[in-house]
Amino acid sequence: MTTTDLSTTGRAQRQRRRLGDVLFAAGAQGSGILILAILAGVAAFLILQSFDSLAANQANFLTSSEWDANTREEPSFGVAALAFGTVLAAAIALVLATPVAIGIALFIVFYAPRRIAAILGYLVDLLAAIPSVVYGLWGIGWLVVQLAPFYAWLETYFGWIPLFAGPVSTTGRTMLSAGIVLAVMILPIITAMTRDVFLQVPQSHREAALALGATRWEMIRMAVLPFGRPGIIGGAMLGLGRALGETMAVAMILSPSLVISWFLLQSGNQTIAAHIALQYPEATGYGVSALIAAGLVLFAITLAVNMVARFVVSRRKEFA
Amino acid sequence: MSATKLSAPEKTVPPRPLAPSLGAKPLPALFPPTLLAGVALVAAGLLYALGWWNPAVWAIVTAVGYMVLITAASALIENRRKAKDRLVTAIVYTCFGIAMVPLVSLLWTVLSKGLVRLDGYFLTVSMNGVTPSMDAGGAYHAILGTLLMTLMAALISVPIGLMTAIYLVEYGQGRLKRAITFFVDVMTGIPSIVAGLFVVALWILLFGPGKTNGAAGAISLSVLMIPVVVRSCEEMLRLVPNELREASYALGVPKWLTVVKVVLPTAIAGLTTGVMLALARVIGETAPLILTAGSSAVAINANLFEGQMMSLPVFIYSQVRMGGVINYERAWAGALTLIIIVMLLFLAARLVSHFFAPKTR
Fold first, then answer.
1. Can you tell me the distance from the alpha carbon of A177 to that of A91, in angstroms, rounded to the nearest whole number?
2. pLDDT at residue B5, rounded to an integer
């Protein structure tokens, strides 16, 4: 008798509690699902709104480079040059930033005096706090002026390398300038990721290497870098994703043109994100829809890069 | 027996080096800094004499010269392995120096050029009726717009982000939890301009083409803010010790009350810090706002749901696009204002986490 009594009151209590619990749990789970829905919504709405112009497009969207979409009759536009510019700018940024970021991470974790290491790390994080529009302003108001003579020098002595062929842009508003600013912007991202992995290197591995008589560099090469490689790759890819989608710095610095050009010191090229920001205020006719289509391409590229990056990073966690 | 056998050779080892390569006399500790100073002086003198003086060139010549000399000296006096180690040390220090160049020059440029125009007038006057090259006008409308849109973005994203974090830490399991974790990470990587386009597409569907207002801007900002809030809140909730939850359950407190009354208050300092850092991240966003809130508003507009709304980042951008001297002055002043706001948020976040963090043993 007593046992049934206990169980019924228990059940009653549990049910009374459950209402609050159920609501709260549902709310929490609902928020999570809402996030997935937003992400799906981003893709769905972009696809939906780009149909309009893609159906009317006279040119091949993926292989054409022209952009004549601000009309109601026979628009013709394509993202070939834009996609090329996007990848080129991000590649320059990645090539410049990754080695420096690894160096900084090594400095903060293994070289800097213990007491000030945290502060120095904070200084690098500060780079991530600066808004991109300020980077753009700094780039066009200060950096390109400093870089212009350097470009002239580069062309004089290294002009035989096709990348640096002249005639050099006198304003310095070139692909290389945009790439340099992007490199500064992704530096803290790659550094943070790399630093985190370096900190996770087991103390015993490092001490074992040092105990065998290794110098600090040999310890890093043998114990730290092999362990940290997935983190470095993941961090670099996160930086790449950021550089691919960065808008303002490129929109403000680069003097654009819709051509596919390998000449980093001449004005020209354009990225998808900057093109959207520059064109949107003047877009009419199929213009908005065409820009949304371009944005869809950017979304697909960054999504792929980020997913691979997260996959690489999360795989490391499993092994660590 | 064995102890004495082992201890005997140990005593004889220390006085004599193990191997010639390890025992070679190292360079004195003061040698590298002295060499660096010497190289810097010589490089400066040389560049002056040749008439090529330029701070950047001087830094590069100094760094390369030091690397060559320290490696050579170490290779001659110590050994090749140590030489390599010293070379890498120099390279690693240089890497950090390279990162400081943009930071210092950016902050210095913004400060020196921004102070020209940043005053009470600039902060309290809008651009209404000001022609681009007129020596007047300020950023009040932009600051107001930034604060309003960021506030609304926070009101949208903090509840969603916090509840998702609670789900991930307290409730989630299995595939849904893994999917949410993964896609929140992926969502952090969405380009800001795509978030803007998403709201543009949504707005066209809901209200027809060409509608721009502050609410659209706020929603595009919250798309960018939600994943940041989730990540930081999740981390903070994980730090709450499980003993607290178990003690609460043992007293018969339902799970949701445990979360609300025990877990959240314990983590409140961290949560506040996380939200403030997320705010600092989105307050500088420009691209989505150009698309959603418009880039040509000049008058004060405090209504989020009607008419274009200017924001500080878009203000900077549109002034740069106009391209005149005074426009650039306004842009620099705007940039300084923006950086000050971001830094204040960072500082506040630090202070909150410093003073309100629960005392741990």
1. 13
2. 46
* Distance separating alpha carbons of residues A251 and B332, to the nearest angstrom: 17
User: What residues pair up with A77 in beta bridges, in sequence order?
Assistant: A67
- CATH number for the region A76-319 comes to 1.10.3720.10
CA distances A140 to A93, A277, B317, Å, are 17, 17, 11
Separation CA B325–CA B246 (nearest Å): 64
> How does DSSP classify residue A123?
H
Of B81, B95, B171, the CB nearest to A218: B81
Domains and CATH numbers, chain B: 25-114 (no CATH), 124-355 (1.10.3720.10)
Which residues in A lie closer than 8 A to residue B226 (C-beta atoms)? Answer: 35, 38
Separation between Cα atoms, residue A84 and residue A255, nearest integer Å: 16
Q: How many angstroms separate the CA atoms of B102 and B56, rounded?
A: 12
Which DSSP letter does residue B302 get?
-
What is the rounded CA–CA span in Å between residue B68 and residue B83? 10
| Helix residue ranges per DSSP H, A170-271 | 175-200, 203-211, 216-219, 225-245, 248-253
Number of Cβ atoms within 10 Å of the Cβ of B65: 18
- Report residue A231 as tokens: 């983190």
Point out the residue among B186, B291, B343 whose CB comes nearest to the CB of A280: B291
Cα–Cα distance for residue pair A10/A75, rounded to 1 Å: 70
CB-based burial of residue B253 (10 Å sphere; 0-12 exposed, 13-18 middle, 19+ buried)? Answer: middle
Identify which of B56, B163, B295 has the shortest CB distance to residue A27: B163
Asked if the Cβ–Cβ distance from B189 to A303 is below 8 Å, we say yes
Cα distance between residue B127 and residue A175, in whole Å: 33
Q: Do residues B229 and B157 touch, judged by C-beta distance below 8 A?
A: yes
Residue A67: in which H helix or E strand, if any? strand A67-68
pLDDT, tens only, A94-112: 999 999 999 999 999 999 9
**CA separation for the pair B252, B254 (Å, rounded):** 6
Q: Select from A295, A296, A289, A301 the least CA-distant residue to A54.
A: A289
Peptide bond before A167: cis, by omega within 30 degrees of 0?
yes
pLDDT digits (tens, 9 = 90+) for A225-268: 998 888 898 889 889 989 999 999 899 998 888 888 888 888 88
What local confidence, expressed as pLDDT, does residue A172 receive?
Answer: 85
Element holding A76 (H helix, E strand): strand A76-77
ipTM over 0.90: no
What count of residues does chain B have?
Answer: 361
8 Å CB contact between B26 and B82: yes
* Cα A247 to Cα A86: distance, rounded to the nearest angstrom: 10
d(CA B345, CA B348): 5
Domain ranges within chain A, ordered by starting residue = 2-56, 76-319
- What count of other Cβ atoms lies within 10 Å of the Cβ of residue B22? 11
- Token pair of A88 as six digits: 């080129």
A201 exposure class (CB count in 10 Å sphere: 0-12, 13-18, 19+) = buried
Whole-angstrom distance, CA of residue B98 vs CA of residue A100: 8
Per-residue pLDDT, A317: 56
Q: Tokens standing for B269? A: 């300092």
Tell me the chain A residues in contact with residue B256 when contact means C-beta distances shorter than 8 Å.
20-21, 23-25
Interface test with A, best of B167, B279, B315, B318 (most A CBs within 10 A): B167
- Three-state secondary structure call for residue B128: coil
CB environment B264-278: b (16+ within 10 A), e (fewer): bebbebbbbbbbbbb
Report the C-alpha gap between A304 and A237 in whole angstroms: 10
**Nearest-CA distance B188 → chain A (Å):** 9
State whether A245 and B193 contact (CB < 8 Å). yes
